[in-house]
Amino acid sequence: MTFDWLLLAEVSLAGLGTGGLYALTALAFVIIYKATRVVNLAIGEILMLGAYAFFGFTATLALPWWAAALGALAVAGVFGAVTERLVIRPMLGESPIAVFMVTVGLGSILVGLVEILWTADPRRLPEFMPATPVFIGEAFLAPKIAYGFLVAAAVITVFMVLFRTWRGGVALRATAGDRAAAYSVGINVPGVFSLAWVIACVVAAGAGILVGAIGGISSTMGVFGLSVLVVVIVGGLDSVPGALVGGLLIGLIEALAGFYLGGEYKLLATFSLLVAVLMVRPYGLFGTREIERL
Amino acid sequence: MAADSPILEVDGLTLAFGGVLALNGVSFPVAPGSITSVIGPNGAGKTSLFNAISGFYRPRGGSVRVEGRAIDRLHPPERARLGLARTFQNIALFRGMTVLDNIKLGRHAHMRTGLLDALFYFGRARREEMELRREVEERIIDFLEIDHIRKAPVGSLSYGLQKRVELARALAMRPRVLMLDEPVAGMNREETEDMARFILDVREEWGVTVLMVEHDMGMVMDISDHVVVLNFGQVIAQGLPRDVQANPEVIAAYLGSGNVDDLRRRFAADARKVA
Question: Is B89 a member of any domain?
Fold first, then answer.
C-alpha cells in the first residue's frame, strides 16, 4: 500500500486552518503581555464570551449574523475596558503571580456567567459561512476552516500594519519597550493599557466566533486557551511573529498527531514540543531573552 | 511678565514616601536659557525631584510652574506636551527598536495622525512622517554625531552612545526645558567632555533651557549658570557655581565639616565615649 499523500495534505491543511485561529488568539494574548506584562490566563474564556455573545445576538435576539458579530465584538471590547480599569489596573505593581491568579479567577467567573445565562449544554452557532467545499489543488478543506483561516489571516495582517504605522500601535510597542520612557515622551501609558485590553478582547472574541462556528460552543470551550498558552510559550510570550509561527506549528502538529496517532496523542505531541522548545530556548522561539520574573 | 521671569519654577515642593520626606519645601527658579544644575550627595532627593517635576510622583505639597502656570494637576504625557523633556539616570530607551525609531518616538506627543491615515499610510501620516524624518535626520542626528548608528538596535550600543540617543529623543520632543538626569554618570573624561559640549551647543542651537542633575562637580561648575544644592531633601544653598562651591554648608554636606581640627576634636570625643 502506498502512502496517501493527498490525505496528508488534507490533514495538514486542516491543521494549519486551526493554527490560524490559534495564531489569532495568541496575538490577543501577546498584545496584553507586551503592553502590560500581564499573563492573561482568561484569554480562552474571553474567546468563549465572544462566541456566546454572538450566539445570544443571533439565536435570542435574531439579529443578522454580521450585526451579531459586531455586537459580540463590542461586548468583548467593553468587557476588556472595564476589566482593565476595575480589576487589572488596581493590581499594578503587585507581584506578577498575583495578577496572573486574578486572571485565572476572571476565567472562572466568565465560565460561571455563561453557565448561568445559557446553561452548560453545548450549542451550535447558526451557519453564516458559505458551505461550498474548498479545494486547494486536489486537497479538500472544510469550508468553515478555510474561511476561518482567511478571516484570521486578514485580521492579523491588518494588525501587523497598524503596529508599524498607527500612533496607537507605536505607542503600544514603545510601552512594551520601556514604560518610564514611554511616559516621558508623552505617551498616555494607562491609555495604552486600556487599549491593549480592548484590542485583545475584541480579537479573542472574533476568534471565538470563528472557533464556535467550526466546532460549536460550550462552557468548556475555554480550554482552547490551553493550546494557545502552549503556542505563546513556544513562540515567545512577547513576540507577535512567535504567536503566528507558533500558532501554525501547534495547529499542524495537533492535526497530524491526532490523525496518525489518535486523538489522545494530540496533547502529548504539543506538550512534548513545548518541553523540547523550553529546553533549547527558554524564552520561546522568538521571545525576548530576558523574560523576567514569574 | 518680565523677560527673565523663570521658565520653570519649583515652589515649596514636598514629597513623602511613607514617613520619609524625600523632598522638604524645595524651591528654586530656572531662568529661561540657563543651565541650572541640581547637585547633592546620594539620596539627597535629586531624582525624586525630577520625578516630581515630570509628574511621575505626586508631591504632598508645593507647586511646579511652567511660565507661571501651575502644572500640578497635569499627567506626565500632558507635561511632556508642554515642553518638559527628560532623560533618565539609568537610561530608558525603547528596547528592540533602532536608534532612529527611538528618536522619532520623541515626537509622539505632537503627532496627529488618525487610524485610517495610518492604515493606508497616506495623507497626514505620510506628511508627518516626512517632516519628522527631515528634522530628526538632518538636524538632531547630525548634531549629536550619531549618524553612523541610526539603524542600529539601541541595545547594541555603548553606554555613552545610549545616553546620547536618549538626549536625541528628548530633543525630538521640541522641549522648552530639557531635564537631564545624570547625563555623564559612568562616562570617562573624554565622553564627559563630549556631553558637556553637546549640552552647551544644544542651548546655543535650540535655545533650550537645561535643568540637570549631576554628580560630576567639575562639569557642573564649568557649564552651569545656577547651581542648587540638595541635602536630605532640602535646598541648603543655591546661586552661582563659585558661590556655591565656597559655601561652608555645601562643603560640610559633601565632605563632613571640612575643618580638620573640628574633625580631630570629634574623633577624640568619640574615643572618650567608647573608653
Answer: no
